[in-house]
Amino acid sequence: MTFRIDRRGFVAGSLATGTMAGTMALFGPGALRADENKMLRFGLSAYPPSFDMWASTGTAAGTVKLMIHRGLLSYGKDGLLRGELAESWDVDENGVWTFKLRDARFHDGKPVTAADVKYTIEQVAAPDSTAFRRSQMALITKIETPDDKTVRLTTAEPIATVPHWFANFNMAILQEGADKTSTVGAGPFKFDSTERGVKVVVTRNDDYYKPGLPKVAGIEVIVYSDENLRVAALEAGDVDIIEYVPWAAMSRVEEDPNLKLDTVPGPFMYLTFNGSRKPFDNPLVRKAVGHAIKREDVVEAAFYGRGAPLHHLPLDPSSPFYNEDLAMGWDFDPEKAKALLAEAGHGDGFDCTMLSTAQYGMHQSTAEVSQAYLSMIGINVTLDLPDWSTRVQKGNEGQYDIAVMGTAAESNDPDGMTNVLDGSQKASFVRSFDISIPAINEALAKGRQSFDPAERKKIYHGMESTVIDQSPMVFLCSRAQGYGTAANVSGFKNLPGQLTFQSGVTLEDAMFG
Amino acid sequence: MLRYIAFRVLIALVLVWLVSTLVFLVLHLVPGDPAELLLASGNTAPDPEAVAALREQMGLNRPIYEQYLTFLWDLLHLDFGTSLRDGASIGPELALRLPRTLELIVAASIIAALIGVPLGTLAAMRAGGIADKITSASASLALSTPVFVVGTAAILVFAQWLGWVSAGGYVPFAEDPVRHIKLLLMPACTIALGLSAVLMRMTRASVLEVLERDYVRTARAKGVSRRRIIWRHVVRTALVPVVTILGLEMGTLIGSTVLIEYVFNWPGISGYLVRAVEARDYPEVVGIVLIISFIFVFLNLLVDITYALLDPRVKLAK
Q1: For the segment A155-209, what is each residue's pLDDT rounded down to a tens digit?
Q2: Most buried among A135, B234, B246, B278, by the most CB within 10 A?
Q3: Would you tell me which residues 275-304 of chain A have a C-beta closer than 8 angstroms to some C-beta of chain B?
Q4: pTM confidence score
Q5: For residues A262 and A268, what is the distance between their CA atoms, to the nearest angstrom?
Q6: Chain B CB within 8 Å of residue A139 CB
Q7: Which domains does chain A have, with CATH numbers?
Q8: What is the Cα–Cα distance from A86 to B119, expressed in whole angstroms?
């Protein structure tokens, strides 16, 4: 018995399928595009995990902070310190810093005064503070406010890097008495609304202290967690700027006539070691690792060639602290690596584990390339690739032999690498575990206290050669960090080097055309 | 009847409590400290004192039994607590996001049913024929292609090449109904693709089985028209198991639309769950899992009760 379904019956049954296709076809090209208005649309990689303005809650949150708030200083497009709420700053012979405030107003119309700066510093240094700058602000022993527009800061020891403390986006000046989550700032944009996890909307602050800025009506910040969708959104014209352009898509963005790619070499990848157990408690073994890995292959595999090999400290050749003679400190030389291993008594090699994460492709690829090269000098690496959160915890607790890490320094000054280099601090996943080289820690302290550029250059030269010699960690490569914009967006700029994550400060200049 | 329902409701409530307790405990065993993770989001080493202060503020240094009791007490007051990260109330957040995921699932199910059932019927009618082979092969292909591949391809074609729709996103229906539906269509169709394949196969098998039944032959013999036999007698009967499968699949989809929500930037409950887990935001994770298990358990309960009502052979007594 065969049944035949007649045409009418089948057509009726699958009518929905046809309707669906028809409806899709009816929506003509561009019908979904937002109306052309002057709101800039920014595709962010994550929703700010919290609005605690002083806590370090990541780049995405930092970009939003830079729309709403301003600190005393910031970094300009040239990467140099520039005044924001402070119009000038100076230090006297005793190391007392004086900041002169300009006539700036908070979004509610109240002027920014010395009392607000004092309040901010005190809050950040408070015992229950969760602020990023907590330990630095705690070094300030006296805050004087001789008048409304002057703040004088005294530290126990003279410190040369104080201005950098106040240029970070986690050091926004909030109004006296304000909660740390306050969105009433003195920045170029006023907080308008937010939908948690989805978007943040800010509008132009017409009373911003820089005349003529900002040049757009506001910014609609839309969160795109998926990097591919973020690029797709830029390509489709749904957003005007995106951060964290994935390396795989950089060429595509670059070649698209409707888009622009703005990359800087800055953030870097490196290997950390567990110094609390054999064999990486031995500097010779660590140095062997430094000579064993061909950096070019890491750049190729993890970053599609968008990066540069790093055989020394992550200091750009353009930096005044760059040391030509140490540039190839950890040159790729498997024979030297083997000799170092033999000298350390590990001529036959050994087994160890390498901690990385499967959550981020660049971390995993870096681990895989390193694993391959280490096997060539007899080090058999087993990869441990948990999710990022677990990886952080394991790093903090030293549950690894070698680990892959990537970060950016706080600034382009060598002092900005303290976080990574100073092993005297409490254990952290960004540093090697239980490896503290006194010469390095002392050099960092001395460099902070010296006001003489020539002397600082000498101190950091000595430090870099100790780093290469003792290899408390081994640097692998710098990676290009990229923003993508529509071709008609100008003014926004990726800040040079380690400052790339602070680029949100230039949104005040962003404009169409 | 009432006793049966009361008993099943009780069991369901115990199940939900068990699930939430289990999740609460397991979460605390997973490595990762929410305070440390939050302050290390910039990949910088956080100040240890700042982390200690934050742990205190998050209430994480209280003994775990105390945290658990607080959680239960709040739950009895229908209070899901607040996010560890930014202190946002979790209840309203769930109320906002759950309907979006449900909308996605319902839309996908409707589309899947509208595609799968007619095609399955057609395949059964022409069992062994070309149409059957083509639909079966397509179903295999649809089933074996992961949603993120389909989703990404759909974005490439419809958003980037053709420019018909935005590359993902969400607009509330009240704000812009047309745009809302356009944004809903791509993710819904992507889920529907795999789902329709399941329904198509189920329908095909079921229709084939019903076609062999005596009453169909009797109807034929009585001269009932072909169309009437198929749509009134065969398909209707054959749909019962298909509906059951669809119900089960819908239950599973709540909480497993993660990839779709991720790929299409759909701010539903699955994506919310993933981010909460990544940040080890304990109250958020527990709250989301609780609501998902609640829906799942009570959907099943509803199915059981419906069966009991429909089919007198199902015993109501336990």
Answers
A1: 988 999 999 999 999 999 999 999 999 999 999 999 999 998 899 999 999 999 9
A2: B234
A3: none
A4: 0.84
A5: 17
A6: no
A7: 6-187 (3.90.76.10), 268-479 (3.10.105.10)
A8: 71
